[in-house]
Amino acid sequence: MRIVAAKKLLKANDLLAAENRAKLAAAGVAAVNILGSPGAGKTTLLEALFAALAHRARPAVIEGDIAGALDAERIARLGVPVVQINTDGACHLDAGMIAAALADLDLQAVDLLFIENVGNLVCTAGFDLGEQMRAVVLSTVEGDDKAVKYPAIFQGSDALVMTKCDLLGHTNFDPARVAADYRRLAPDGRVFEVCATTGDGIPAVAAWLLGSEGSGRERTET
Length: 222
Ligand SMILES: Nc1nc2c(ncn2[C@@H]2O[C@H](COP(=O)(O)OP(=O)(O)OP(=O)(O)O)[C@@H](O)[C@H]2O)c(=O)[nH]1
Ligand SMILES: [Mg+2]
Description:
alpha/beta; Rossmann fold; 7 strands; about 20% strand; binds magnesium ion
């Protein structure tokens, strides 16, 4: 019987993630790993961001889902290049899956690559994909205790996007409490409050993404 230790698998993942990171950097692509629960609003956030990023950065998306291509179809309808990964039961993306998806994208035509991870607040945290930034999406209907209960996903992330803020009046969600808990886990992380369906707060997220890309990356219309 052969036993492969989880530690070894994670080490192999880290090596592939480093290769992805080098490939993306060489192509001048900034990649953002988008994490959050099922239904938190990750795809809706991307849809809203494309409008805010128009003529400023060329986006592409890698969609991670256990099954189906519904999210990729939503992205493709907006004319954004997209590759759908079906994990076939796995609860997170890994660097090997991203390496395969990168081969299907024309990286020279991309500035910002969004990687929408499988909806999951636990397993996704442990796998480096080779991204440059990590953003956690938390919606106001999930409860404001999530940063305390699921710290790993928030720890060391670059941004927290609290979404569905239009529903705040219908919940007991306290954004200030979440922001304070988040700051303890990611002192340098940015905090945004948005409503992706109306676009409220989206320009600030877009500005952060463009700024995080480093000087000179912002695209001017040719
Ligand atoms: N009211 C409100 N609804 C939203 C907002 N953002 C997303 N939704 C709704 O929330 C539901 C889930 O949104 P998605 O964007 O598909 O969520 P997701 O995180 O991509 O879901 P998975 O990919 O399945 O994990 C949809 O019915 C959206 O219309 C928002 O800001 N306000
Ligand atoms: Mg989605």
